[in-house]
Specification:
alpha+beta, seven-stranded antiparallel β-sheet, 26% strand, elongated
Length: 202
C-alpha cells in the first residue's frame, strides 16, 4: 500500500507540474490567438424557438466558460448541430458587460438586444486568469520540492551532528537541542528524518 501511495503521489505531482507548464504556454499563446471548445445548436426547443452555444475559451490572459442563448429571428453563421468543435481566432478581450471584474477574474450575466427585429440574447459566464490556474497547479510540485529539500538538509545536518531544525552543534547534547528544543536523534539511529523535523516542516 505504501508503494502504491508513493507512486500515486509522484503521478499526481508530475501531472500537476505538466498542467502548470501547459497553462503557462496557453497563457503566452492567448496574447495573440484565442482558442475555444464549444457547441452551437439551432432551434433547441423546436422550430423557431432559440439557438444557443456553450463552451470554454482562452484569450488575452484568461480562461473562461460561458453560455449564450439567442432568440429568433436572430441569424447566426456558426456551424450548427455539429457537436463540440475546437476553434482558433485572433485574440480579443471578452466583450460582454461584466457584473464584476478584478485582476483577470470576472463574471457576466446580461441580456442584450440584437438590433431592429432581433429577438435579443442572454449570456452568462465566468473567467479566471491563466496565472491563477498555473499557480494552483504548481502548488503540489512546490510542496514536494520543499519536502525533498528539508529531508536533504536534515540528512546533511545529521551527518555533521547538527540540529536538524536550526543547525546548532548538538554533539554534546543528549536529549534536546539547547538552542531550539528539537529532539536529538538517539545514538542507535532510530526514528525517521521527517520525525526529527520541527512542527510544520514535515
Amino acid at each position: 500500500m505504501g508503494k502504491f501511495l508513493r507512486f500515486a503521489r509522484r503521478v499526481f505531482v508530475s501531472t500537476s507540474l505538466l498542467l502548470s507548464i501547459a497553462t503557462m504556454m496557453l497563457w503566452v499563446r492567448s496574447c495573440s490567438t484565442g482558442d475555444s471548445f464549444d457547441r452551437y445548436r439551432e432551434n433547441v426547443a423546436g422550430p423557431g424557438t432559440y439557438h444557443d452555444t456553450r463552451g470554454v475559451f482562452s484569450t488575452r490572459g484568461t480562461i473562461g466558460v460561458g453560455y449564450l442563448r439567442m432568440l429568433p429571428p436572430h441569424v447566426q453563421d456558426w456551424p450548427a448541430d455539429e457537436g463540440w468543435k475546437r476553434r482558433a481566432m485572433p485574440a480579443q478581450p471578452v466583450a460582454w458587460p461584466h457584473r464584476w471584474a478584478l485582476l483577470g477574474f470576472g463574471y457576466w450575466n446580461a441580456a442584450l438586444p440584437t438590433g431592429p427585429g432581433g429577438g435579443g440574447m442572454r449570456m452568462t459566464g465566468v473567467k479566471i486568469p491563466h496565472w491563477f490556474v498555473a499557480w494552483v497547479f504548481m502548488l503540489p510540485p512546490a510542496g514536494w520540492a520543499r519536502r525533498a529539500w528539508l529531508a536533504r538538509r536534515a540528512r546533511r545536518r545529521l551527518a555533521s551532528q547538527l540540529c536538524v531544525a536550526c543547525g546548532y552543534d548538538v554533539r554534546e547534547s543528549t536529549e534536546r537541542c539547547p538552542e531550539c528544543g528539537t529532539p536529538v536523534p538517539s545514538p542507535d539511529g532510530k526514528g525517521t528524518l521527517l520525525s526529527l523535523l520541527p512542527p510544520g516542516e514535515g
